[in-house]
Amino acid sequence: MTDTTAATTEAESTTKPQPRLKQKYKNEIKTALTEQFGYGNVNQVPGLVKVVVNTGVGEAARDSKIMDGAIKDLTAITGQKPQVTMARKSIAQFKLREGQAIGAHVTLRGDRAWEFLDRLLSLALPRIRDFRGLSDRQFDGNGNYTFGLTEQSVFHEIDQDRIDRVRGFDITVVTTAKTDDEGRALLKQLGFPFRSGEQTV
User: Rounded distance, CA 166 to CA 176, Å?
Assistant: First the structure.
């Protein structure tokens, strides 16, 4: 072992532990995907790039408190300050002006993305009433997956007694997968409860 390697290993051991889901990916999932798709190079194995959490706020122009509530909820759910989404052009029939606030989003990378997915899969989704799994048909053709949640109350970070209004979110998981089949296999290994193709024990 070189001095550089030893120093790196020592530094890693003193930092906070890696997210649980990230460890599972490194220790189990990469091997499983390599066997499934026959990758010849470890760099071919699909991985997680980022997670984008987005909410639209159509009424924000008429009531700034609505936007404030969306930002507060997104911050609580993701642990990161959201970016406000502005309208790129004016649309008269929707009373929309260019530069008007229409939503907010957060982009999670690295450990924050892994930790968010872990909380989403292990805590939030099981709290959805009559949950029957996620559709596996909402991939974009390049291995990235988007799905919606109808209300913020499924996240335990949200105080149920202080919800100003029911607010839905779109969540996009961006991966390095080249195809939807690879992306689907990655997310299934991570624990995404897809309806289609689920095996019963």
Answer: 33
Report the C-alpha gap between 75 and 139 in whole angstroms.
26
Sign of the dihedral defined by the CA atoms of residues 188, 25, 170, 73, in that order? positive
User: Quick one: which of 17, 193, 200 has its CA closest to 184?
Assistant: 193
C-alpha 18: how far from chain center: 18
CA atoms of 122 and 191, how far apart (whole Å)? 9
For 131-170, what is each residue's pLDDT tens digit? 899 999 999 999 999 999 988 888 888 877 677 777 889 9
Beta strand spans in 7-72 (E): 48-56
- Superfamily designation of domain 46-190: Ribosomal protein L5 (3.30.1440.10)
CA distances from 3 to 14, 16, 28 (A): 17, 22, 29
pTM of the model: 0.82
